[in-house]
Write a structure and sequence with these properties.
Length: about 325
């Protein structure tokens, strides 16, 4: 039986703990909230992040990182991307030297423009054979309801990918393996920013043509950056690329699309941030992604205009007009 420590007990972390249990394993959620721990252990629920979903008996919660990590073969990381470095610095000494780190995070670190697997390797000293990531069209609420979905487990180590695949294969979640860590990780990070743009145009009242155009051109931007960083371009036509992008840009369950939609409706950044319950990773990732693109001389106009809206206060109408007035070129 695979035992996993899942940090932390947000919506996706809680759902992935359920997935591990439903696949025959055991998962311990780390939470900072005593009421969440009580609800998970006493009532088999996480009403704060996953109302209505009953958790299996093999999911439990704790406030103690050492307890969560005791005997864990998988260390699943599902915390806000910008918190990873500091949090992992404290947890890493408690991790079994043979355990596999599994990133569920889809962001880029501010200040370094590093991907999450790069941060994990840097902080823990773990080799690439002990690091994997899970990425795909995985809206937590739907998977929590056991609606059918597929995902990608990426690692340079075939054995590590197979281990995580086996630990997360359920009747409702079908995981595929992939060796392209860079491509899968970039697909997950960039799509959050594209989803902000898709939400903005939706909030402005535009329809399917505008959203489809953003999805398609956003995928092109993602692939350009990915190829510059050594990714396999075919990755972006798969689950961790197009699949994740479509789900995040079109579903009202997507926190990034929802955040963007509120901006498009005229709310300020401060108003949306105060109102939104969970982190929209694209808000913090757009600037380090733009730095990464400029470092590699990659043109990413959608990312650039989202960054201008978020950090420079460019009105959304002006951003949309600027994007549409760029000189046309070949596809």
């Amino acid at each position: 039986m695979t035992r996993a420590a899942v940090f932390s007990a947000g919506s996706w972390g809680t759902v992935f703990a359920k997935v591990i249990a439903d696949a025959g394993g055991e998962a311990v959620l780390l939470s900072r909230n005593p009421s969440v721990v009580e609800a998970v252990n006493g009532r088999r629920r996480n009403p704060r992040h996953l109302p209505g979903v009953v958790l299996p008996d093999r999911v439990r919660a704790t406030l103690d990182a050492a307890e969560a990590l005791d005997g864990a073969a998988l260390v699943v990381l599902a915390i806000p991307s910008q918190s990873l470095r500091e949090a992992l610095t404290g947890w890493a000494p408690l991790v079994d030297p043979a355990a596999i780190y599994v990133s569920l995070m889809k962001g880029i670190e501010t200040g370094t423009s590093k991907r999450m697997t790069e941060v994990i390797a840097e902080v823990t000293g773990a080799g690439p054979e002990r690091i994997a990531l899970v990425s795909g069209p995985n809206l937590a609420a739907e998977i929590g309801q056991e609606q059918p979905s597929a995902t990608v487990v990426a690692s340079v180590s075939h054995d590590a990918a197979l281990t995580v695949q086996g630990a997360s294969h359920t009747p409702y979640l079908r995981p595929y393996t992939n060796h392209d860590v860079v491509g899968c990780e970039l697909g997950g990070a960039v799509k959050n920013v594209i989803a902000l743009a898709a939400g903005i145009v939706t909030g402005m009242g535009y329809g399917a043509n505008a959203v489809a155009s953003l999805i398609t051109r956003g995928l092109s931007e993602t692939a350009r950056l990915g190829v510059a960083l050594g990714a396999d371009p075919l990755t972006f036509s798969g689950l961790a690329g197009l699949g994740d992008l479509v789900a995040t840009c079109t579903s009202p369950l997507s926190r990034n699309r929802t955040f963007g939609e509120k901006l498009g409706l005229g709310m300020t950044l401060e108003q949306v941030t105060a109102e939104q319950f969970e982190v929209a990773e694209g808000v913090r990732s757009c600037r380090p992604l733009l730095y990464l693109a400029r470092r590699h001389d990659v043109d990413m106009p959608i990312i650039e205009h989202v960054e201008l809206v978020i950090y420079e206060g460019l009105p959304v109408a002006d951003a949309f007009k600027s994007l549409m007035s760029r000189d046309p070129g070949p596809e």
